[in-house]
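Async update (no meeting this week)

Hi team, since we skipped the sync, here's where things stand on the single-chain job. The sequence we agreed to prioritize is pasted below, unchanged from the tracker. I ran it this morning and attached the output directly underneath so nobody has to dig for it. Comments welcome in thread, and please keep replies under the output.
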Amino acid sequence: MIKKVIVLELKDTYALAMEEGGNIIRIKRKDGLSVGDKIYVLPEDIYQPEQEHAITPFSFNELRKKLSIDHTSNTISWSRLVGVAAMLAIVISLLLPKLSLPAFAEASFDGSAGIQLELDRNGRILEAVSTDDSVSDEAVLALKEKNIKDAEAEIYSLCDSESILIGYASLNEDNKDDGLVQIIQSLFPKQSVVYLQGNPNDIHMAETKSISLGKYLIKQKKADELDKIITSLPKEQIEHLLQENPKWVDEDLREIIEDHKEQLEDNDENDVDDDETESSEHFEEDEDTEDPDIPDKGEVAKDQELLDDPEDNDLETFQNDDSEDEPTDNIDDDK
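Output:
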């Protein structure tokens, strides 16, 4: 008959095992057998000492010694059960595959308030903190175990701003996952976003200064680098930054933003002037364009002069010629 047992203890030539009903038996020790293993045994697997030719049950005294059975109550001591349970828990934890991936990267989000997240490769939030204590612990911890894609609305609400600074860095320089980077960059499509990427050392340095990764990264940028970042932003985002003036925009950065806003306004004015100039030139070209069906003004004036001059008028000449024939009747009367 097949029996299901769990290995309790290993001896030199045999092992002690417990059946499902609680009976303790000896089984032959085989290679690879470990304490805590759950196995099936056949009759031939039962250990039989050489001097005996039958299955020898475990003696009552030895059973009591091993499991601390009380003669009066016939119950197993709780301490032994707790020990067995702890042993089983350790074995199971070693056998089961890990359900969670190790930390892969960190990302910070700063607006009027700020949070920083520790992520695995798939974007699952392993840890969450507010480096400046601007967000309550309860609200931050509520993000744990969620995927960052699903937590977009909550992160935006916690940042409480239309202008968000995102800092990102992997925990290991060999860790490269463009997919996770693209997910983070695609967050908040309707907000003004400045995205900065660092390295593992930046994460450590930000922690030592007790500031977020994004704030640390933006402080390390030189003026020309900040200028390029602001130049890449649409005009609407630049205006949002100036109007809202979030905490992460320091005095130097604000000055750069204001300079760019003035340049954009000057460019807009120049564009308007250019449009007006082009429109005026186009209008003048239309006036100068001659229509072949419309007579020239000089020709019209010349024709008018011909009509007004009696010497050149054919009609008047025709009438004068007719008048020379009229005196015929007067001659006859005189006769």
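Quick observations from my side:
The beta strands are 3-10, 14-19, 24-28, 38-41, 105-110, 114-119, 125-129, 163-170, 192-197.
The radius of gyration is 50 Å.
Reply here if anything looks off.
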